[in-house]
Design goal:
- It holds the Pfam family Aminotran_3.
- Its cofactor is pyridoxal 5'-phosphate.
- InterPro entries: Aminotrans_3 (IPR005814), Aminotrans_3_PPA_site (IPR049704), PyrdxlP-dep_Trfase (IPR015424), PyrdxlP-dep_Trfase_major (IPR015421), PyrdxlP-dep_Trfase_small (IPR015422).
- By secondary structure, the protein is of the alpha/beta class.
- It has two domains: 31-64 and 345-449, Aspartate Aminotransferase, domain 1 (Alpha-Beta Complex); 69-343, Type I PLP-dependent aspartate aminotransferase-like (Major domain) (Aspartate Aminotransferase, domain 2).
- It has helices spanning 7-14, 54-57, 66-78, 91-103, 117-134, 155-160, 164-167, 185-188, 195-213, 239-249, 271-274, 302-315, 328-343, 346-362, 400-410, 432-449, and strands at 33-37, 40-43, 48-51, 110-114, 142-146, 177-180, 218-223, 253-257, 281-284, 296-300, 370-376, 379-384, 413-414, 416-418, 421-424.
- The strands form three sheets. Strands 4-10-9-8-7-5-6 form a seven-stranded mixed beta sheet, with helices on both faces. A four-stranded mixed beta sheet has the order 1-2-3-13.
- The chain is globular.
- The structure holds pyridoxal-5'-phosphate.
Length: 450
């Protein structure tokens, strides 16, 4: 049991934790993080950790960016709150939307703002439904996502997701949400099947699902460029080209969930550019503000916007929006984040450091318990397996991934165990030397486990 005088002890008595085994919490002390500096965070005992996951894939500029802090402070001192309902706006949100439209990977028409990735995806779903009602196709409502996808935890976003923990005992997914096969070449491909052939098979599977459901009932397909929480799954060669050909054939909208990949993670400003995706709707969050304030965005193209705008004219309003949509403080911090990306050439740093990161990660492929190392840009995963030759996973109850992540913590590096895939997603400001140090710490954790 926890000492009730410590922060951790008090915490377990009052705090209903996100994504935690609540039953085990009283016997497992929470890690209390008290401050951050650069790519590091520091716990309440003064121990420093390399934050190899940027928190939850978001603190792209690290944990002590002064420009973002100053932008937030100034905004708080100028206009701490206002809303964007009923034709209200503020200067920061306008400039932020302008910048986002300029950065968009494909021509986009408007930007809607929310507070989290989940809300952005929830909003995208509602816009898809509203759009199809607006264009007189009210039966076109089903949304296809992928098994192992992660799109958030609101009722719609969790329904989009394809991870068991987000569905089980929450009575999800809702009807209208379907899941097709995961583009996971390591576990999903047949022996000897090339990435291209695997992609063809997945696209054919998608088409069969659409035909079985009735194309006139299928509204949209949603995909992360790289599936993050599902295990950092980089799409196999040709995947999005083949998928998009199917979507175009049946007039199905394409939503890109760029909540993790947006803003440089894969080497381009958006993962859509890296993988040739041409979405009608794009959602982003996390690195939009480097995680410093809650903010997310939904970009929609002219086809979608024009239809929903016309429909709102008939009803008298577009009945969707949050109290904090376009929040002036969040918008100011996000705007400053985008300026820092440009002024400090953060993509240039990714281009420089990513080859070092990917090579250092791939060096782990020689270890006996590593089945595959995958990644792109500054995101990657190391897949732990019981049998390399047979692609056989460890039994889940062995909790090998979690044990490795715990050993890594001892070595002063924070990584994320997604089952037995060890995820890495460091701040985009990381230097080549820091990458080398991060992997050296991880190697020591492996040595202890093997
Ligand atoms: N979409 C993706 C791809 C994510 O990785 C996440 C969160 O990790 C979300 C959506 C949900 O974002 P949030 O936790 O801000 O609601």
């Amino acid at each position: 049991m926890q000492d009730s005088n410590t922060i951790g002890g008090k915490d377990v008595a009052v705090h209903l934790h996100s994504y935690t085994n609540l039953a085990a919490l009283p016997s497992t002390p929470p890690l209390v993080i008290v401050k951050g500096d650069g790519i590091h965070v520091v716990d309440d005992e003064g121990k420093r950790y390399v934050e190899g996951m940027s928190g939850l894939w978001c603190a792209s500029l690290g944990f002590s960016n002064k420009r973002l802090a100053d932008a937030g402070t100034q905004a708080l001192n100028t206009l701490p709150y206002y809303h964007t309902f009923n034709q209200r706006t503020n200067p920061a949100v306008v400039e932020l939307a302008e910048r986002l439209l300029k950065l968009a990977p494909v021509p986009m028409s408007r930007v809607f703002f929310a507070n989290s990735g989940s809300e952005a995806n929830d909003s995208a779903v509602k816009m898809v439904w509203y759009y199809h009602n607006a264009i007189g196709k009210p039966e076109k409502k089903k949304i296809i996502a992928r098994k192992r996808a992660y799109h958030g935890v609101t009722v719609a976003a969790a329904s989009l997701g394809g991870l068991d923990a987000n569905h089980r005992d929450f009575d999800l997914p809702l009807a209208r949400f379907l899941h097709v096969d995961t583009p996971h070449h390591y576990y999903g491909a047949k022996p000897g099947e090339t990435e291209d052939a695997f992609s063809t098979r997945l696209a054919e599977g998608l088409e069969q699902t659409i035909l079985a459901e009735g194309p006139e009932t299928v509204a949209a397909f949603i995909a992360e460029p790289v599936m993050g929480a599902g295990g950092v799954l980089v799409p196999p060669a040709g995947y999005f080209e083949k998928v998009q050909a199917v979507l175009a054939k049946y007039d199905i909208l394409f939503i890109a969930d760029e909540v993790i990949c947006g803003f440089g993670r894969t080497g381009n400003m958006f993962g859509s550019t890296t993988f040739g995706m041409r979405p009608d709707i794009l959602t982003c969050a996390k690195a939009l503000s480097s995680g410093y304030v809650p903010i997310s965005a939904v970009m929609v193209n002219a086809k979608v916007y024009d239809a929903i705008a016309a429909n709102s004219g008939k009803i008298g309003t577009f009945g969707h929006g949050y109290t904090y949509s376009g929040h002036p403080v969040a918008s100011a911090v996000a705007l400053e984040t985008l300026k820092v990306y440009e002024d400090e050439d953060i993509l240039g740093n990714v281009a420089k450091v990513a080859p070092v990161f990917q090579a250092a990660a791939r060096a782990f492929a020689n270890r006996p318990m590593v089945g595959e190392v995958r990644g792109v840009g500054l995101i990657g995963a190391i897949e732990l397996v019981a049998d390399k030759a047979a692609h056989k996973p460890f039994a889940p109850e062995q909790k090998v991934g979690y044990r490795l992540a715990a050993l890594a913590l001892e070595e002063g590096v924070i990584v994320r165990a997604m089952g037995d895939a060890i995820g890495l997603c460091p701040p985009l400001i990381i230097s080549a030397e820091q990458v080398t140090d991060m992997f050296a710490r991880l190697a020591r954790a492996f040595d202890k486990l093997e």
